[in-house]
Design brief:
The structure holds two protein chains of two kinds.
Chain A: H1 8-24, E1 39-46, H2 53-72, E2 80-87, H3 92-105, E3 110-112, H4 117-129, E4 134-136, H5 143-146, E5 153-155, H6 160-174, E6 180-184, H7 189-205, E7 210-215, H8 225-234, E8 238-240, H9 245-257, H10 260-263, E9 265-268, H11 275-278, E10 287-288, H12 304-318, H13 324-346, H14 354-361, E11 365-367, E12 372-375, E13 381-382, E14 385-391, E15 400-407, H15 409-412, H16 420-425
Parallel strand pairs in A: 1-2, 1-3, 3-4, 4-5, 6-7, 6-8, 8-9, 9-10
Antiparallel strand pairs in A: 10-14, 11-12, 12-13, 14-15
Helix pairs in contact in A: 2-13, 3-4, 6-7, 13-14
Chain B: H1 2-7, H2 9-40, H3 47-67, H4 75-97, H5 107-129, H6 138-143, E1 145-150, E2 153-158, H7 159-182, H8 184-194, H9 196-201, H10 206-228, H11 238-253, H12 258-278, H13 286-297
Antiparallel strand pairs in B: 1-2
The chains are: A alpha/beta, B mainly alpha.
Chain lengths: 441, 311
């Protein structure tokens, strides 16, 4: 029922009823029957400062672009959309306070959180306490849905386990004869967790590989001279690195200058975002990933026109290439729209409350420019992973992947109810037979 | 022990080379901070911002030189030009507009003001250069690599890191020592550092010395940033990381001690590189282990002197 149909008496009666109901059912705001709001407010946490703003600011820009696009089309369910941004950089204590403020004072209808896994781990308990639907729009930690049910949290992209397992399977399929390897990862949750998963998977699928160096320089280290010397001296066949952002740019430039790329094969699951900046400095012949399937040269995008339009619109507006956090933010907005449309339809045109919105997210399928993504029953999104080997194509000023393998999400994702490390231990080498054939990009 | 050294002599040699390059950069930033504190008695948190702006400016000047068709070797003097520009413009501005108002104030206030300045300059960097990594490595590529023999093979080092960084640090150390001890201006600075009241009573214009010293300190910070720019990506936040390490060096050396800063930078550079080779988990904490160990034994720092409290 639109608000214009209400008389003042209805409103007063409704208010009295809501007050009484509120007193009787204190703490059950999620069940309240809301009116269609004047605007749909989305609280978005992202890095607006510090080293991770290399992802956070493109994420904010993508959000602004999506808000404008949705509003030009009439909003979501006929309601205009407004985004309120919060900086993750000051830390989780600040973020938790801001999350509460956005929900309790600003009255946001949904939260999008966050880039950092630590931020997401801090926000998901709040989503439960405040009964506020929270879209985990970029963080990757596998722990979120493995350590207990999340009634109000949903992740609209993949997570750490498939992002590590897919490059491992690619390496085992394309370069199976390596005997030694090393790791250089940033010293924080992703760096440690991704190495643990890689090592566990590798021990299950190719036991006996000798680890010759395990290096964990601090996040934001300005120089990797010593680490590169150590790796040059150790001469591993393969080097795994989950580095990203400015750290990856520094590592790759120093490694290229000192010919480390010529001695070892690098596996870089988060390479995509740094490749435009590195230009031709990043050499051919190394395994690269993008935290999903959204390479701009995706060999079989679901909607090529939409992928092209996204690339062109974003570049025209922000003078930057699209990188993966842009795709993840676009996915979050598309999922939100699909969930509201599903919930509104289920309610016969009425505006959904928090419970109904959360129910609509569970099992939701929505389209991204490259594929369809389904949220599992635990809230985790199933996003395909594309891994390829770097190459230099004519007309492209930086490395792009070729011989791409599209790993189906279900193949490389931890099953519901299992913990990733436990599942990786159960992998058998016959999984390699299921790896799809590479597609030249 | 001797056997361990024998087995690992090759790796220790590589660690020594890495440590020297690292120490050179650490020293350049820390010595500026140390000099400013010695004279102005202000712990300047914004020193990290000057480092970051020096790095960004060096990349911008280098890119401009390249686009203007200047020869590749011009990328090396471009680093010094950028540092001089940043220090020469921002140094006097900050000293005149901000620091001059807080001389003699409580240390907490001075810290808060310079921290506020640091935050403002962080945002200024984002406004000008954005948040995506900025890079310009022509100076490093220009000099190529130098192969160091190791275990029947070679380990390539960039000549820039092997020779330029430690070389510039050495030139600054020697030049600064000569300047402070052999020139009139240098002796005036030392006089103000040692006893500001007595120096002022002798007719020295302390305010002019403050301006000169801060500008020079700002140039050193910017030079550290500029010299680091060819080797790495410049991103938001590099100033904060640098200032923390610089404080560790200054505290360990003793506030106001130039040679002490050099020795401490060397200890920290070598300590970190040896840790990467033999105990990588300790690399991050090595500077602070050294700092705590020194301060437990000598609270005034390695080269600091105890000052009698005036009652």
């Amino acid at each position: 029922m639109p608000p214009t149909d209400l008389s003042r008496r209805d409103l007063l009666a409704g208010a009295a009823g809501l007050t009484a109901g509120g007193l009787l059912m204190a703490g059950s705001d999620a069940d309240a029957q809301p009116q269609r709001p004047a605007e749909l407010k989305i609280g978005i946490t992202t890095f607006l400062s510090g080293p991770a703003s290399v992802f956070g600011v493109p994420g904010r820009q993508a959000a602004e672009m999506m808000v404008d696009e949705f509003n030009q089309q009439g909003g979501i369910g006929g309601v205009k959309v407004r985004a309120l941004f919060v900086d993750e950089a000051p830390g989780t204590e600040h973020l938790v306070g801001e999350f509460r403020r956005l929900v309790q004072s600003e009255g946001v209808h949904v939260m999008f959180a966050s880039i950092s896994s630590g931020s997401c781990l801090a926000c998901t308990p709040l989503s439960r306490d405040l009964q506020k639907t929270t879209v985990l729009w970029d963080c990757a930690t596998q722990r979120i849905f493995e350590e207990g049910p999340q009634p109000f949290a949903f992740r609209t992209q993949g997570f750490a386990t498939p992002e590590v397992l897919a490059p491992l399977l690619y390496l085992l399929k394309t370069k199976p004869d390596f005997r030694t390897m090393a790791v250089i990862n940033q010293d924080y949750a992703w760096g440690r967790d991704s190495w643990e998963m890689w090592r566990t998977g590798m021990e299950a699928l190719k036991p006996g590989v000798r680890i010759v160096a395990e290096l964990f320089p601090r996040l934001g280290a300005p120089d990797f001279t010593t680490e590169i010397t150590r790796l040059l001296a150790a001469r591993p066949d393969v080097i795994f690195s989950g580095h990203w952002g400015g750290d990856l740019v520094t590592l790759a430039r120093q490694a290229a200058e000192r010919r480390l790329f010529e001695r070892s094969t690098f596996v870089l699951p988060v390479a995509e975002a740094s490749l435009p900046i590195l230009g031709r400095t990043f050499p051919a012949g190394h395994v690269i990933g993008t935290r999903g399937d959204h390479w701009n040269n995706h060999p079989r995008p679901k909607d090529p026109a939409r992928l092209r339009a996204l690339n062109e619109t974003y570049r025209a507006r922000f003078n930057e290439a699209v990188i993966y956090p842009v795709h993840h933010m676009v996915q979050a907005f598309n999922a939100l729209k699909a969930a509201y449309e599903k919930a509104i339809a289920a309610k016969g045109g009425g505006w959904p409350n928090d419970m109904e919105l959360a129910a609509a997210f569970r099992g939701l399928t929505f389209d991204s420019p490259t594929a369809s993504i389904t949220l599992r029953e635990d809230g985790q999104g199933l996003e395909d992973q594309i891994v390829g080997v770097s190459t230099h194509a004519e007309g492209t000023p930086y490395a792009i992947p070729k011989d791409m393998v599209i790993f189906p999400a279900a193949m490389v994702s931890t099953p519901v109810g299992m913990k990733s490390v436990d599942w990786l231990k159960t992998l058998k080498p016959d999984i390699l037979a299921q790896v799809p054939a590479p597609i030249s990009g | 022990m001797a056997e361990w050294f024998g087995d690992n002599s090759g790796l220790l040699g590589l660690a020594l080379l890495d440590g020297l390059a690292s120490a050179g950069l650490i020293f350049l930033v820390a010595v500026g901070l140390n000099l400013v504190f010695g004279v102005l008695r202000i712990i300047n948190v914004a020193h990290g911002s000057l480092y970051a702006i020096g790095a960004y400016a060096a990349a911008s000047v280098g890119i401009f030189f390249a686009s203007a068709g200047l020869p590749a070797w011009a990328s090396l003097p471009a680093l010094v030009v950028a540092a001089a520009l940043v220090g020469g413009i921002l140094g006097p501005l900050i000293e005149r507009l901000v620091l001059r108002r807080i001389y003699g104030q409580e240390e907490v206030l001075q810290l808060l003001v310079t921290f506020a300045l640091f935050m403002i300059l962080e945002d200024v960097q984002k406004l000008i250069w954005g948040v995506q990594p900025v890079q310009h490595d022509l100076a490093m590529r220009l000099l190529g690599t130098y192969d160091v023999p190791f275990a029947g093979d070679v380990v390539p080092f960039t000549a820039y890191q092997l020779f330029v960084l430690p070389g510039v640090a050495l030139v600054v150390l020697v030049g600064l020592a000569w300047f402070l001890r052999r020139t009139l201006t240098g002796r005036v600075i030392v006089a103000v550092t040692t006893d500001r009241e007595a120096a002022t009573a002798m007719g020295i214009d302390a305010r002019r010395v403050f301006l000169l010293t801060f500008t020079f300190g700002a140039m050193l910070a910017a030079l550290g940033g500029a010299l680091s720019s060819p080797t790495g990506a410049i991103v938001p936040g590099i100033g904060a990381q640098t200032i923390v390490l610089s404080f560790a060096v200054v505290a360990t050396a003793g506030l106001g001690q130039t040679e002490g800063a050099a020795l401490t930078a060397l200890m920290i550079g070598l300590g970190r590189s040896i840790a990467v080779y033999f105990e990588p988990e300790l690399e991050v904490v090595v500077p602070y282990i050294i700092m705590v160990a020194v301060l437990l034994v000598r609270p005034q720092g390695l080269f600091g002197s105890t000052v009698a409290r005036r009652i």
